[in-house]
C-alpha cells in the first residue's frame, strides 16, 4: 500500500511536470490514437493524428520534437488502396482567420519535407506506397462554417507539393489539359470536381515534388476568384499542412521540418486580384456538371 502510494505520487509529480509549458515543449511527444491532438504552446498551431479513414488495416503515429516547428508521421495501411486512411497534419491557428479572399494579402508556407520507407532498405514503390503531401484548406460563404468543420464548408482548396504512387487529385483522371499557373518559377495545374461530401474541390498540383517549399500561395486563390470559380467574398477558414496516407505494405516515414505557416489580411491591390488569362470554358462546363452530380 505504501509502495503504491509512493509510486502514484511520483507519477503525479511527473504528470505535473509534463503539463508545465517549458517541459512539454522540450521533449518529443508521440501520439498514436485516431484523433489525438497537441496544441503548441509556442505557436498555438494544432498537430493532429487524424486517422479518419482507419479501416483496421494498419497504424499511424505522429511525433513532435521540441520546438514545435517539425513533426513526422510513421504509417502503414494495407487495405482499400484508393482511400485516404489518415491525414497527419498541423493546423494553422491565427487571428487572421477566417479571412475573405478579397482581403487575403498573403499565405506563406515554408517547409522542408521527405517521404521514405521507414526501414531504409527498399523504395517507396517497392512497398506500394501511395500518399500526397498537401496544404488542405476549407472555405465557405459563411465565416463560421468556413472554420468550424471540414465536411460542411462548400469548398476545399488543396495545393499538392508531393505525390506518390496512384494518389491523385479529384478530377485528374478526367481533365487532360488543365489550366496552369506559374508561381515563383513552379507550374501548378488546376483540377476540380466534387468529393464524397458534395464539396467542390480545387486542387493545384505542382509539376514535381517540391521538397523545399517556400511560397506565398495567395495568387492561386486570386486565380480562382478572377476566373469566377470562387466568389471573392468567400471566407478561408481553415489551413492545414500534412500528408494524406493511402497505402503501403510496410512503414513509411513522412518528415516535415522548419515549417513556418503565416497568413495576413488587409486591403489587396487591384493588380494582385485581377489579371491572368481568360476563363477556361471547359473547366466552367465541368464545374456545372459537377454541381449536377453533387445534387444527385
Ligand atoms: C510501424 O508504424 C507504427 C505506427 O507508427 C508503429 O506503431 C510500429 O512500431 C512501426 N513498426 C516498425 C516495425 O517500425
Ligand atoms: C475518376 O476517378 C473517380 C474516383 O476518384 C471515379 O469515381 C471515376 O469513375 C473516374 N472517372 C474516370 C473517367 O475514370
Ligand atoms: C514524386 O516522387 C515520386 C517518387 O519518386 C514519383 O513517383 C512521382 O512521380 C513524383 N511526383 C511528381 C508530381 O513529380
Ligand atoms: C520564391 O522562392 C524563393 C526561394 O525558395 C523564396 O525565398 C521566396 O520567398 C519565394 N517567393 C514567394 C513570393 O513565394
Ligand atoms: C478588405 O478589403 C476591402 C476592399 O478592398 C477593404 O475595404 C477592407 O478594409 C478590407 N478589410 C480589412 C480587414 O483589411
From TrEMBL:
SUPFAM superfamilies: Concanavalin A-like lectins/glucanases. Residues 1-25 form the signal peptide. GO terms for biological process: polysaccharide catabolic process. The chain crosses the membrane at residues 272-295. Keywords: Carbohydrate metabolism, Glycosidase, Hydrolase, Membrane, Polysaccharide degradation, Signal, Transmembrane, Transmembrane helix. One of its GO terms (molecular function) is cellulase activity. PANTHER family: BLR1656 PROTEIN (PTHR34002), CONCANAVALIN A-LIKE LECTIN_GLUCANASE (PTHR34002:SF11). Pfam families: Glyco_hydro_12. Gene3D superfamilies: 2.60.120.180. Belongs to the glycosyl hydrolase 12 (cellulase H) family. This is Glycoside hydrolase family 12 protein.
Amino acid at each position: 500500500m505504501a509502495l503504491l502510494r509512493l509510486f502514484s505520487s511520483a507519477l503525479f509529480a511527473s504528470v505535473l511536470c509534463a503539463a508545465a509549458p517549458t517541459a512539454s515543449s522540450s521533449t518529443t511527444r508521440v501520439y498514436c490514437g485516431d484523433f489525438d491532438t497537441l496544441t503548441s504552446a509556442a505557436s498555438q498551431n494544432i498537430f493532429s493524428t487524424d486517422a479518419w479513414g482507419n479501416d483496421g488495416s494498419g497504424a499511424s503515429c505522429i511525433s513532435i520534437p521540441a520546438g514545435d516547428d517539425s513533426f513526422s508521421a510513421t504509417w502503414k495501411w494495407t487495405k482499400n488502396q484508393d482511400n485516404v486512411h489518415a491525414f497527419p497534419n498541423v493546423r494553422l491557428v491565427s487571428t487572421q482567420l477566417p479571412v475573405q479572399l478579397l482581403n487575403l494579402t498573403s499565405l506563406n508556407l515554408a517547409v522542408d519535407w521527405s517521404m521514405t520507407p521507414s526501414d531504409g532498405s527498399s523504395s517507396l514503390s517497392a512497398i506500394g506506397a501511395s500518399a500526397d503531401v498537401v496544404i488542405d484548406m476549407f472555405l465557405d460563404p459563411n465565416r463560421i462554417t468556413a472554420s468550424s468543420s471540414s465536411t460542411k464548408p462548400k469548398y476545399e482548396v488543396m495545393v499538392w507539393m508531393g505525390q506518390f504512387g496512384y494518389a491523385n487529385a479529384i478530377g485528374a483522371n478526367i481533365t487532360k489539359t488543365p489550366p496552369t499557373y506559374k508561381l515563383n518559377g513552379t507550374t501548378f495545374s488546376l483540377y476540380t470536381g466534387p468529393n464524397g461530401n458534395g464539396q467542390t474541390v480545387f486542387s493545384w498540383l505542382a509539376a514535381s515534388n517540391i521538397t523545399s517549399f517556400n511560397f506565398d500561395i495567395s495568387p492561386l486563390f486570386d486565380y480562382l476568384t478572377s476566373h469566377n470559380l470562387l466568389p471573392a467574398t468567400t471566407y478561408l477558414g481553415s489551413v492545414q499542412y500534412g500528408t494524406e496516407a493511402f497505402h503501403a505494405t510496410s512503414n513509411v516515414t513522412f518528415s516535415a521540418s522548419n515549417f513556418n505557416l503565416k497568413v495576413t489580411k488587409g486591403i489587396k491591390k487591384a493588380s494582385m486580384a485581377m489579371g491572368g488569362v481568360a476563363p477556361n470554358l471547359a473547366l466552367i462546363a465541368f464545374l456545372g456538371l459537377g454541381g449536377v452530380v453533387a445534387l444527385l
